[in-house]
TrEMBL record:
PROSITE patterns: ACYL_COA_DH_1 (PS00072), ACYL_COA_DH_2 (PS00073). The keyword Translocase does not apply. Residues 231-379 form the Acyl-CoA dehydrogenase/oxidase C-terminal domain. Residues 127-208 form the Acyl-CoA oxidase/dehydrogenase middle domain. Belongs to the acyl-CoA dehydrogenase family. SUPFAM superfamilies: Acyl-CoA dehydrogenase C-terminal domain-like (SSF47203), Acyl-CoA dehydrogenase NM domain-like (SSF56645). This is Medium-chain specific acyl-CoA dehydrogenase, mitochondrial. It comes from Lipingzhangella rawalii. Keywords: FAD, Flavoprotein, Oxidoreductase. Gene3D superfamilies: Acyl-CoA dehydrogenase/oxidase, N-terminal domain, Butyryl-CoA Dehydrogenase, subunit A, domain 2, Butyryl-CoA Dehydrogenase, subunit A, domain 3.
Amino acid sequence: MVDFALSEEQEQIRDWVRTFVEREIKPLENEVLRRERTGEGAGLTADEQSRLRDLARKSGFWGVQTPVEYGGMGLDAVSAAVIEAELGRSFVPFYFGGSADNILFYANADQRERYLLPTIEGERISCFAISEPGAGSDAKAIRTRAHRDGNDWVINGEKTFITRGNEADFCMVFAVTDPELGANGGVTCFLVDRDMGWRSEYIHTMGEWGPASLVFEDVRVPEENVLGEIGQGFALAMQWINSGRYLLPARALGACERLLELGLEHARTRETFGAPLADRQAIQWMLADSQVEIEALRLLVLRAAWQVASGKDARHGQSIAKLYGGIKANEIVDRMLQIHGGMGYTRELPLERWYRELRLLRIYEGTDEIQRRTIARDLIKGHVTVGRV
Ligand SMILES: Cc1cc2nc3c(=O)[nH]c(=O)nc-3n(C[C@H](O)[C@H](O)[C@H](O)COP(=O)(O)OP(=O)(O)OC[C@H]3O[C@@H](n4cnc5c(N)ncnc54)[C@H](O)[C@@H]3O)c2cc1C
């Protein structure tokens, strides 16, 4: 028997987050749109974020996947996907507090106090820096170099498109420590405070994300700031990317649900030629196709999350979910914008904003082409069998 039901606990979590989004986040949407229209920023202020985070914390929503011993909820991947989908129902960029990048949990005792715990508490902000101007999809081609000098490492190089790179006060930077070995044992991850000397520059994008380029010029980092082991950085980077990929299409799933609701509402109420849009087959097909794709996406996301939660090799399933989610979210937002006509194109409604935001899903954390490459390679090499993923 196949059981498609969420557990009772997961249903309660979903309902609580949905209510939180309805009561606390959606009321901020018009203000967030207004700010973007007037150039006052594209999201919430730091005060608004922390007020919402503190409010959620009072109800126990803190550190969704952070282990219980660190004060988190320690939830499994399926529950995390359910939460992410609910948060995705608003375009307001909100995440619960209490989390840290998964690889930061490899911190040793000293790093734990200086980096991991303050990050979980929200006192410090991290960023993850592997991409470079010459190395995006081909992450193995990174050139940022770290060489030893006494008890220190000296880092030189440039990183690009680093999320939170402008706000972070430390970064997990990946640098080549042994050029001969390269990604096969010659890349190391360093925890580098901003005041050790790296600088960042804002990159303007079509969405709310303002990633940064980071410049390292003779940045001196003590040996004790190596995260994990020397030479094991590339494996850490892949772990960072591979263990949470399902969360991206999960967020898109929530967005698609809300977009379909907006499209439905408009189709029911907008009349042209003496009848509601909802009476037109051209519009009905857009609604129907969107619902079919949303339900397919839900199953792909939940299955990938279940594979992660049950310790199975989830890379293939996550690639499928991410690829499908990125493509379908972009098609669905386009259809719903179309149903809204001219209003869909304005900055009065969230459709135009979502249209720009969702485009990113086809690029970061592995582009569509790179997901296809993974899927095809797994098939061709026989790592997966057709019909048995
Ligand atoms: C907003 C934003 C936030 C980001 N955040 C981070 C972050 O926090 N940390 C970080 O390290 N990086 C981050 N990135 C970088 C992101 O992961 C890369 O942009 C992405 O991996 C693609 O790399 P690229 O831009 O260099 O494109 P390229 O690798 O140059 O690819 C260009 C195009 O060619 C295609 N292509 C490449 N290789 C192949 C191939 N073998 N076969 C077929 N097609 C191919 C790609 O799919 C793409 O369409 C972020 C990017 C953005 C836009």
